[in-house]
Amino acid sequence: MSPALLFIPRGGWVGFLLGIRRRCSIPAAGKAVGTDERFPHPTAISVGDVMDGWQYLVVLGVCVVVTVPLEFVLGARVYRRPRLLVATLAPVVVAFGAWDLFGYHRGDWWYSIRQTLGARLLGLPVEEWLFFLVVPVCALLTFEALGSRGGGRDR
């Protein structure tokens, strides 16, 4: 694998693309020093810390902004069939929500309070629950838009 493909900026890709400076391991003069609950190394508090909690929502928002036009421009008809949309999303939310809850409570993974806004539902960040709604809807919009253009499926 190319070393360029392994490059992950310290502030994450959203912070990197938006030019947000992430905390570094060496605190700058006059900066407060704190620790993350799972990573005890000292970190400098920076503007990036404030933005870190919004990164997840920014990515989800970009997904929505990019795919919503498919409903109106290419006639995906996903939002126009709400019962079918709910019937499609319900098993996804239940299955992946249960999987995440199981893994989280078992200690297989965790969610940093610095990387989320802090609001939780059943122990998982609200952003994670939104992920289970936004990403499948975006996938459905894309699938339906491509299917309507291909003309191979009955509508």
TrEMBL record:
Membrane topology annotation: Multi-pass membrane protein
Record-level Gene Ontology MF annotations: intramolecular lyase activity; lycopene beta cyclase activity
Domain of life from the UniProt record: Bacteria
Membrane-traversing stretches: 53-72, 84-102, 129-147
Record localization: Membrane
Annotated GO CC locations: membrane
Pathway stated in the Swiss-Prot or TrEMBL entry: Carotenoid biosynthesis
GO biological process: carotenoid biosynthetic process
Domain Lycopene cyclase intervals: 59-145
Protein name in UniProt: Lycopene cyclase domain-containing protein
Lineage: Bacteria, Bacillati, Actinomycetota, Actinomycetes, Micromonosporales
